[in-house]
Specification:
By secondary structure, this protein is an all-alpha fold. It contains 3 helices and no strands.
Length: about 70
């Protein structure tokens, strides 16, 4: 029996959470980007370089079905 682990989906959810937390820390809490990254790296057990790379990415979405125009 094979069960998919959904690695890509789980990773994308983690990355979205990190980007959201970064926005909260730097916006509402007024923390500098450097300290926000240090905080997130420790909280998620990642290196600061990995967090910076995650912050450079945008949210990945599933491709939508493209429907032709009627007119």
């Amino acid at each position: 029996l094979w069960l998919p682990r959904c690695d890509k989906a789980v990773r994308e959810l983690r990355h979205r959470k990190i980007r959201r937390q970064f926005d909260e820390l730097t916006g509402k809490d007024g923390m500098t980007a450097f300290w926000a990254v240090q905080n997130l790296a420790g909280a998620h057990r990642l290196t600061d370089r990995t967090v910076w790379d995650i912050l450079k990415e945008t949210d990945q979405t599933a491709p939508e079905d493209v429907q032709d125009s009627l007119f």
